[in-house]
Backbone:
C-alpha cells in the first residue's frame, strides 16, 4: 500500500513537498543544510520544535540576536521545506505550520504573524523600559548649546511647556525592522547642565555594524543627527548643533513628515546589510572614513579619561570604540599625511599632542586635559588650538621671562633653581625638566655647552658667579610688569663672562681709586659689579672658568705680571699710571701679554743691565745689595740674584750661584772676583754701538767675535 494512503489533502501536499526536498538534498551530500530529514516523522518533529522556539522568541521578543535567531530558523525551515509548490506563500505557511502543530482544525501561522507578534511585544517592552541595552552613563552633555545657556527667569506666563516624543524607541524599532539587533548597538547616555534650557539630554546610539552613530533627543524642537564613523562620546560632547550640521560626515534629521526615510537613507547609504558575515573589525580595518586632528584629539582625551590622565601612544592597542582601528595606524597616518590628514612634517601622536598643548615635552599636561573635559561637560568646545607658540617648544627668552616672573613673586626676589618645583602657569612643567633641556639641547634649545638654568642666567647677566644680580633682576622685572620686553641679551661683554682684557681694565679702575695699588685676591667686592669679588676672579683665572682659557696662569698677580703691571711681587706704578691715564680718556689701556716684558729674565738681559749699571758707577758691576734697578720699578738686584740661584722667571742655568757667578761665566769678573774693567768698558761700548755686548759664556768662548767687528754671537738675543 502506498505510504500516502488515507492522508488528507493537506497531509498529501506536505508529504510530497518533503519528498521533493529530500530528493534535492540527496544530490548535494557535501552541502551542509539546516537539517537532513530521513523520514517524514523526523521532519515533522523538527518543524514542531523550530516553530515552538519561534513562538517563544516572538512572545518574549527583546530585539536581541538570540530572539532573532529563533525567528530566522523557522523561516529558513519553511523556505527549504516548501519545495516547488505553487501555493501562495501565506497559504503554504499556514498549512505547513498548522499540520506540524498537530491539528488540521487549528489555523496555522505565517512568518508575518510571528514578526507582528514579536513587534507588538517589543513595543510593549520598550515602553516599559524592559529592553536590555549595552548602556554607559558618560557624564557628558551631548550636542551642547550654542553658548546661550541659562534658564530664562520670569513669571512663565505665555510660555508653552515642552513636548516630548518617544524618538529613541522609534529609532530602535526602525533599526530592528532593518535587521539591526540590540546586540548591534551601544547606548551612551548624556547629561544636562543645571542651567540648560533643554530638558531632555541627547542619547548616543552607536552602531558599529553600520559604522554609524545617532544622536537623538526626545524633546520636540531638537533634531537628531546621524554621523559616519564611530566618533565616540567626546566628539558629540564637543560640537553644538550648528557645528555638527556644518560637518560633511554628519546628517541633520528633523522630526517632521518623512523623517524616517531621511534617517534610513543616512544610516544605510554606502552600507551593505550582509551584516554578520562582514565583521565589525573587518569593516573598520578598511579605513573607509577619513581622520581629522580633531577626531584624534577627542579619542585621545577619551583614552586619557579611561587611563588616569595618560594619553595614548603608538603602542596603545585599539582605539576605544573603533574596532579594527589602532593607535599605530593613526600614528602612521599622521607621519605620512594619510587618510585626509594634511599637517606636514608631523612625527606622530606625541608631536600632535605637543602642538595642541596636551603634552609638554614628554609629559602629559594633565591640567589642560582636565580643563578640556570640563569645558565639554559644560557644553563648551574643548578649547584646544594648534597655536605655534605651544608650551612644548622652549626658547631662552621664554625661560628668562618665566624666571623673572618667579623672582617677582619670591619674597627675597631670588631666581629659581633646578629644585624650585613646578613652573607657575605651566601645569606639568618644572624647573628640573627645563634645566635638563638646556643641558641636552632638546625642545628647540640650541646653545652648546650650556650647563643648565644657572649657567643661562649667568649668560644673560642675571647671575654673577653663583649670586643673583639683584639690581639687574629688579630692572628686568619692572620692564615685564610694564608690559615691555625684559631687555636682557646674551652679549659676551656682560658681567658673567670674563676676559683678560675686562679683568685688566677693572684692575686699573681699582688702582685709580687706590693710589695706584693693584687689587689682590683679598681686596673684597669689585666696585660696580654686585656679588663679584677679586677672590672669585682669582679662582676663575686659576681654574680657567667663565670663558678664561690661559693655561697655567696662577691667579691675579700672575696675570698682572704677564701684562707688565707687576714686576715680581711689586706693582709697576709707572706703567699702571700710563694705562690708567689712557682709560680715563676713553682709550684702550694699551697693555699686551708680549713675552718680552719686564717680568721675564734672560742671562743676556741681566748682563746688559749690569753693563749699564757699571757705566754709571765707575765701571763697578752690581751685586745683591745694589738696590733697585734703574728704569725698572719694583725690580732690584737682590731679586735678580735670587732668580738666578732659583732658576726662576725663565732662567734655566743649573748650578749658577748668583750675579757674581754669572759675571764670571761671561768674563766680566775673574776667578778672584775682581772686575775686568777693560772688558767691561769694551762690552759697554759694543752694546752702545751695535745693540749687543758680544759676551758669551766661557764654554762658548770659541764663538766670541773679534773686537770691533760688530758681529753677534750665535744664539744671542738683543737686550731689552
Residues:
Amino acid at each position: 500500500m502506498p505510504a500516502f494512503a488515507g492522508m488528507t489533502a493537506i497531509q498529501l501536499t506536505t508529504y510530497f513537498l518533503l519528498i521533493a526536498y529530500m530528493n534535492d538534498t540527496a544530490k548535494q551530500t557535501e552541502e551542509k543544510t539546516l537539517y537532513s530529514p530521513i523520514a517524514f516523522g523526523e521532519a515533522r518533529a523538527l518543524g514542531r520544535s523550530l516553530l515552538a522556539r519561534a513562538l517563544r522568541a516572538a512572545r518574549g521578543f527583546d530585539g536581541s540576536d538570540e530572539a532573532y535567531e529563533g525567528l530566522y530558523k523557522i523561516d529558513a525551515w519553511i523556505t527549504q521545506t516548501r519545495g516547488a509548490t505553487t501555493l501562495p506563500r501565506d497559504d503554504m505557511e499556514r498549512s505547513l505550520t498548522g499540520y506540524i502543530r498537530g491539528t488540521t482544525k487549528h489555523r496555522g501561522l505565517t512568518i508575518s504573524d510571528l514578526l507582528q507578534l514579536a513587534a507588538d511585544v517589543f513595543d510593549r517592552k520598550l515602553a516599559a523600559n524592559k529592553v536590555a541595552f549595552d548602556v554607559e552613563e558618560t557624564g557628558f552633555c551631548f550636542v551642547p548649546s550654542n553658548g546661550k545657556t541659562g534658564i530664562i527667569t520670569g513669571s512663565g506666563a505665555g510660555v508653552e511647556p515642552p513636548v516630548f516624543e518617544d524618538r529613541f524607541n522609534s529609532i530602535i524599532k526602525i533599526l530592528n525592522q532593518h535587521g539591526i539587533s540590540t546586540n548591534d548597538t551601544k547606548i551612551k547616555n548624556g547629561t544636562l547642565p543645571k542651567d540648560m534650557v533643554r530638558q531632555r539630554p541627547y542619547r548616543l546610539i552607536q552602531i558599529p555594524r553600520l559604522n554609524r552613530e545617532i544622536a537623538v533627543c526626545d524633546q520636540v524642537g531638537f533634531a537628531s543627527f546621524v554621523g559616519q564613523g564611530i566618533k565616540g562620546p567626546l566628539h558629540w560632547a564637543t560640537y553644538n548643533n550648528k557645528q555638527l550640521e556644518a560637518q560633511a560626515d554628519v546628517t541633520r534629521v528633523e522630526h517632521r513628515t518623512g523623517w524616517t526615510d531621511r534617517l534610513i537613507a543616512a544610516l544605510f547609504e554606502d552600507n551593505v546589510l550582509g551584516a554578520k558575515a562582514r565583521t565589525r573589525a573587518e569593516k573598520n580595518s578598511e579605513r573607509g572614513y577619513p581622520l581629522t586632528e580633531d577626531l584624534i584629539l577627542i579619542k585621545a582625551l577619551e583614552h586619557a579619561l579611561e587611563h588616569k590622565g595618560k594619553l595614548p601612544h603608538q603602542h596603545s592597542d585599539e582605539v576605544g570604540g573603533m574596532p579594527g582601528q589602532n593607535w599605530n595606524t593613526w600614528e602612521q597616518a599622521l607621519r605620512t599625511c594619510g587618510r585626509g590628514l594634511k599637517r606636514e612634517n608631523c612625527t606622530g601622536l606625541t608631536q600632535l599632542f605637543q602642538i595642541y598643548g596636551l603634552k609638554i615635552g614628554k609629559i602629559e599636561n594633565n591640567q589642560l586635559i582636565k580643563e578640556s573635559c570640563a569645558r565639554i561637560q559644560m557644553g563648551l568646545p574643548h578649547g584646544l588650538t594648534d597655536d605655534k607658540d605651544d608650551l612644548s617648544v622652549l626658547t631662552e627668552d621664554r625661560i628668562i621671562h618665566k624666571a623673572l616672573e618667579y623672582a617677582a613673586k619670591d619674597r627675597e626676589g631670588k631666581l629659581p633653581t633646578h629644585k624650585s618645583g613646578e613652573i607657575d602657569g605651566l601645569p606639568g612643567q618644572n624647573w628640573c625638566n627645563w634645566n635638563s633641556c638646556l643641558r641636552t639641547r632638546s625642545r628647540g634649545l640650541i646653545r652648546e655647552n650650556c650647563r643648565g638654568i644657572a649657567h643661562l642666567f649667568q649668560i644673560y647677566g642675571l647671575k654673577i658667579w653663583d649670586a643673583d644680580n639683584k639690581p639687574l633682576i629688579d630692572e628686568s622685572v619692572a620692564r615685564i610688569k610694564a608690559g615691555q620686553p625684559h631687555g636682557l641679551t646674551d652679549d659676551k661683554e656682560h658681567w658673567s663672562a670674563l676676559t683678560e682684557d675686562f679683568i685688566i681694565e677693572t684692575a686699573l679702575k681699582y688702582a685709580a681709586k687706590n693710589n695706584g695699588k693693584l687689587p689682590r685676591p683679598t681686596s673684597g667686592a669689585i666696585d660696580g659689579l654686585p656679588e663679584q669679588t677679586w677672590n672669585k676672579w682669582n679662582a676663575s683665572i686659576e681654574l680657567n672658568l667663565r670663558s678664561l682659557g690661559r693655561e697655567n696662569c696662577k691667579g691675579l698677580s700672575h696675570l698682572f705680571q704677564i701684562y707688565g703691571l707687576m714686576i715680581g711681587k711689586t706693582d709697576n706704578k709707572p706703567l699702571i699710571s700710563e694705562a690708567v691715564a689712557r682709560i680715563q680718556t676713553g682709550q684702550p689701556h694699551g697693555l699686551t701679554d708680549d713675552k718680552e716684558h719686564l717680568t721675564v729674565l734672560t742671562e743676556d738681559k741681566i748682563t746688559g743691565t749690569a753693563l749699564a749699571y757699571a757705566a754709571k758707577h765707575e765701571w763697578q758691576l752690581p751685586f745683591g745689595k745694589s738696590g733697585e734697578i734703574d728704569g725698572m720699578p719694583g725690580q732690584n738686584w737682590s731679586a735678580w740674584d735670587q732668580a738666578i740661584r732659583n732658576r726662576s722667571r725663565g732662567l734655566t742655568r743649573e748650578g749658577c750661584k748668583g750675579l757674581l757667578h754669572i759675571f764670571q761665566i761671561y768674563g766680566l769678573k775673574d776667578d778672584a772676583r775682581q772686575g775686568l774693567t777693560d772688558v767691561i768698558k769694551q762690552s759697554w761700548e759694543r752694546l752702545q754701538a751695535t745693540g749687543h755686548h758680544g759676551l758669551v759664556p766661557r764654554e762658548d768662548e770659541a764663538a766670541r767675535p773679534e773686537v770691533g767687528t760688530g758681529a753677534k754671537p750665535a744664539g744671542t738675543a738683543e737686550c731689552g
Notes: The two ends are 152 Å apart (CA to CA). The CA atoms of residues 14 and 96 lie 7 Å apart.
